[in-house]
């Protein structure tokens, strides 16, 4: 997994960096609204596209051609799909999807596959050790959704500029939300988009809510998660639960914080993104969890993976097995879907195990629900929480040994005494975990806070406190967890 610091990211303008908050974002906003006054919308779009490409290249300019080449090729494929007949469409869409998956696979899974081949065949093939282009998993999914919608006749796009902005728009480029072209293009196509003071204020408000989640909450939990998973040779029972729950809260506040900042930055330019989180820790079953967590990913997986996968499996497998019940077919499809989701999240067996467990849990819940069984509300919430927390160990662990170290501690195989973690002791992490539960279960989430937004003195005080505390905590630049994807 990734480390806590971003030394290896060089000059990247992370959302939680001084250069992004005080220079890049204000500069982009100023240029955007000044160019709006010229009455030439194309200039504002070019400004946003140029700024987005500069933002991306600040990570590693060597991979800018990968992004640009992918945009050009996929736009050409999509344009072709909108102009040919059904027979040619099938060949083109197949080639387009394989091209995108192949590009992702080359960078993300080459070493994983080489390692499997070496272990299975006793070979010593050298690994490539490729650096993963930033955001490739996200823009690959977006481009696949674009091609599929073109194939289905749902899009009529003749603007390369709009498509390039759809992929490269800086607020969501790095880690989502995963947008659909039909969501963003109508907003980009507006002839004028003048300054809206309410949207600007709401966007700033949401941005700093996300920044607070990241630098104050997520980065605090990261201390215990990193120490427990990566540094300590052993853990006790209390440490094990403190470490696993710390990581669960780190991941929650880190990624939901990023999504808030993305939505906020876009809203400052009068562009609305779909909501990506809705208090997933409140979920009372695994289905409810996936309807609340990374909602745009769940939407993509269902629409562009599960539905075609189910059709493919029926035509090529299930139709030849008339004795197999439809419910069993659906459960197999669900498990396959989550295995794909696990592999998308990371090239390693821990991610596959995580995906398998979620797939089995989702299929089990489906059967349980159809049978008419229900758990009491509090018990259902607790079972769901424990499952999510336990499976997150595989999501975080860098290898099998690291996962087993945490699991053995959680289930009492390594003793129950307190042991010290750096910067604070285990009891300190327990207090933060308790505070985290109170916050996510009792306080309104960022969506609700935005809906209730009113420009009054209470809001101003709350915003000022968030901003000051967040900026004071920008003492160390820490990366977002989903940047590895």
TrEMBL record:
Protein family according to the UniProt entry: Belongs to the membrane-bound acyltransferase family.
What's the source species for this entry? Paenibacillus gyeongsangnamensis
Where does the record place a coiled coil?
none
Keywords in UniProt for this one?
Answer: Acyltransferase, Cell membrane, Membrane, Transferase, Transmembrane, Transmembrane helix
Q: Sorted alphabetically, which InterPro entries does this protein's record hold?
A: Ac/AlaTfrase_AlgI/DltB (IPR024194), AlgI (IPR028362), MB_O-acyltransferase (IPR051085), MBOAT_fam (IPR004299)
> How is the protein disposed in the membrane?
Multi-pass membrane protein
Source taxon at top rank = Bacteria
- Where does the chain cross the membrane? 17-35, 47-72, 92-109, 130-148, 160-181, 202-224, 296-314, 334-357, 378-397, 457-475
Where found?
Answer: Cell membrane
Q: Does the keyword section mention DNA-binding?
A: no
Question: What is the name of the protein in this document?
Answer: MBOAT family protein
> Does this UniProt record's set of keywords contain Cell membrane?
yes
